[in-house]
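// run 5 | inverse folding | seed 20
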């Protein structure tokens, strides 16, 4: 994987190639008018990026129209680079690093990463919210676990319900993570209500999958769910090492990023493409 933005841009084939990449992510089977669905358009060259005008209804659109990327002053290649770095399992990137690599302000870099993460959090993609089936391990993990843990949850701890599905060879293939609210916890144990919410949201409705035991305490999860416990441990560590001092308010977005990447890499390895698709299809407010 290329580390610098310049090397990445060269490898992609330049700014125009990045635009083309986004085009194929938005319209994988060729352009279709967002208004009427017609598949033919005139291309109007503009200073920023081409506009497509539907030959039937004359509706004009661009690759980024209606997405949070619309009107962005940051080149699309820099957005793609940020996604590229976020999709790399071996090299996390934070806003300080991104600032230096693509020469934007810290505020811009932070907003870029935050928007991408928000898209991943809100995406309907099964890479984020797909249901686990078959052989499943499920239980409780605690984010930010304090060393001298008392019976009660600490202020900086966040309980997370987690699950992993393994294939017939015992290899983990899909994960799901869900923040558990304080009302779904009794001290350091998840209530049946919390388990139920996790199951109904993330476990396939077929009877065999629904039989999965969701371990309600971290202790039992660690003992009975070896695969899951090590995935959560590594995931939490990566988030902490990359981002330092993640606030609980933002944790959901970081967990979404981790889940999305983990699942995309195991699905077909095309994490960058999936990330770009999720960003183009998200309905976040337009970027300033
Ligand atoms: Zn049209």
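// decoded
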């Amino acid at each position: 994987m290329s580390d610098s933005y310049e090397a990445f841009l060269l490898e992609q084939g330049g700014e125009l190639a990045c635009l083309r990449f986004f085009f194929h992510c938005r319209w994988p089977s060729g352009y279709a008018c967002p208004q009427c669905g017609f598949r033919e358009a005139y291309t109007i060259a503009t200073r920023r990026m081409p506009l497509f005008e539907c030959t039937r209804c004359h509706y004009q659109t661009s690759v980024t129209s209606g997405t949070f990327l619309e009107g962005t002053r940051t080149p699309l290649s820099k957005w793609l680079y940020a996604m590229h770095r976020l999709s790399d399992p071996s090299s996390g990137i934070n806003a300080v690093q991104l600032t230096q690599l693509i020469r934007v302000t810290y505020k811009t870099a932070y907003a870029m990463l935050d928007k991408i993460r928000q898209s991943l959090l809100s995406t309907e993609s099964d890479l984020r919210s797909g249901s686990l089936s078959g052989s499943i391990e499920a239980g409780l993990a605690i984010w930010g676990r304090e060393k001298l843990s008392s019976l009660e949850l600490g202020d900086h701890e966040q309980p997370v319900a987690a699950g992993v599905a393994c294939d017939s060879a015992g290899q983990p293939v899909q994960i799901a993570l869900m923040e558990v609210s304080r009302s779904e916890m009794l001290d350091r144990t998840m209530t049946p209500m919390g388990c139920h919410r996790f199951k109904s949201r993330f476990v396939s409705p077929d009877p065999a999958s629904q039989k999965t035991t969701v371990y309600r305490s971290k202790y039992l999860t660690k003992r009975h769910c070896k695969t899951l416990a090590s995935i959560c441990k590594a995931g939490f560590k990566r988030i902490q090492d990359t981002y330092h001092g993640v606030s609980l308010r933002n944790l959901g977005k970081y967990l979404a990023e981790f889940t999305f990447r983990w699942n995309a890499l195991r699905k077909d390895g095309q994490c960058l493409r999936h990330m770009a698709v999720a960003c183009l299809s998200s309905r976040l407010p337009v970027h300033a």
